[in-house]
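Key result, reporting period 2: structure in, sequence out.
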């Protein structure tokens, strides 16, 4: 069994000093034998004021702690005696303990190792702890008015982070015609500090479907870190999204580490995807070429809103034409004319028939079929002037 020291002693609340001693015993004894030898062999050795038993009863000496180990038929260990006496009395008591030369039936030798000033150790702990508390206090309360102003602005901007589905986004993402794609929430917070509020984060190298669909509707700027992670996101965007411009942080720097002025500067220096660069060139050229080809195919235009399709507008106009305004009966009589007489008297038809058509192919003028044009005008005339029979009866 190895020799160990036990300092988990039970100190008195008024302990000032701690007597530490080592002992060697020529035999096998137990802890009660050691404590009993201390009380027995120091009894009557000193005055009644320094009797160990009386001192412990009065609380001026605490509980004696003993730690021992037996090896090879011998016992050795250590003991600790807490004292609330003054320095002189504690020294006298320690010297008295050292006079004990027999423990149980065996010869023994006790040697005082040191007398520890418990209050000094407490003072050291107090100084160390007070220093830590003071440093923390000064750090937290050292902000001047300008720093407080910046903190208020920072809290207001960072608090403006919203969500686009499950993704963090800037508060003006939906209302802006241009979106800025960044990597994570910290990048959005950095952009908000710079006043950039139309951002959305992909939250990793995989581009979500919602972001990919959004790039097809709005002008898109990819604002990415200057490292391999930024390359991976850019390659993913080139494969599945329609990116118009690319802005990158300097090599080895992330967007969230940029200052507000630097963020504005890098976004101002954005480049079209035709001039985009990569930190890692693996598979970059092929993806970039395909993305440029798709951009050229769509002509650089993107849907901004949902205008009424031409077909729907034409049907609305025709519906309006099919519903004639109410007119008097006499006016209806005067308006209605047979189709043949109207066509012969119409200046439009007369001017068209009087034109010189020599040298041209029949039914063709300026690259379109005259027959289809005549038929469409005839149908339009039928819609405009054709009235129900009940209006023609007098």
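The corresponding designed sequence is given below.
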């Amino acid at each position: 069994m190895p020799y160990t020291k036990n300092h988990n002693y039970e100190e008195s609340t008024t302990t000032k000093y701690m007597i530490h001693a080592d002992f060697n015993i020529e035999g096998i004894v137990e802890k009660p034998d050691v404590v009993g030898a201390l009380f027995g062999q120091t009894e009557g050795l000193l005055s009644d004021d320094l009797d160990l038993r009386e001192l412990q009863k009065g609380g001026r000496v605490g509980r004696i702690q003993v730690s021992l180990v037996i090896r090879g038929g011998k016992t050795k260990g250590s003991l600790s005696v807490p004292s609330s006496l003054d320095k002189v009395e504690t020294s006298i008591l320690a010297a008295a303990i050292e006079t004990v030369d027999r423990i149980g039936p065996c010869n023994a030798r006790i040697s005082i190792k040191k007398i520890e000033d418990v209050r000094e150790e407490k003072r050291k702990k107090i100084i160390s702890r007070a220093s830590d508390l003071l440093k923390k206090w000064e750090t937290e309360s050292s902000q001047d008015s300008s720093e407080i102003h910046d903190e208020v602005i920072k809290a207001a901007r960072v608090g403006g982070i919203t969500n686009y589905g499950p993704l963090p986004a800037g508060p003006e993402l939906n209302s802006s015609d241009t979106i800025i794609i960044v990597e994570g929430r910290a990048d959005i917070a950095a952009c908000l500090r710079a006043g950039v509020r139309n951002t959305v984060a992909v939250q990793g190298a995989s581009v979500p479907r919602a972001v990919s669909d959004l790039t097809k509707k709005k002008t898109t700027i990819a604002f990415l870190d200057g490292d391999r992670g930024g390359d991976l996101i850019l390659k993913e965007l080139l494969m599945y999204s329609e990116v118009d411009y690319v802005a990158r942080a300097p090599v080895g720097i992330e967007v969230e580490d940029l200052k507000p002025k630097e963020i504005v500067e890098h976004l101002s220096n954005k480049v079209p995807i035709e001039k985009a660069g990569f930190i890692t060139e693996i598979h970059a050229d092929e993806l970039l070429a395909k993305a440029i080809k798709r951009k050229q195919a769509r002509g650089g235009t993107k849907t901004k809103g949902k205008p009424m399709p031409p077909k729907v507008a034409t049907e609305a106009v025709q519906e309006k034409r099919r519903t004639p305004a109410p007119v008097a009966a006499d006016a209806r009589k005067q308006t209605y004319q047979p189709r043949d007489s109207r066509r012969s008297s119409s200046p439009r038809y007369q001017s068209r028939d009087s034109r010189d058509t020599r040298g041209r192919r029949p039914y063709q003028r300026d690259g379109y079929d005259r027959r289809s044009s005549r038929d469409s005008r005839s149908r339009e005339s039928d819609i405009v002037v054709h009235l129900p029979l009940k209006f023609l009866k007098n």
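The chain is about 45% helix and 20% strand. The mean pLDDT is 76. This case is discussed further under Risks and Mitigation.
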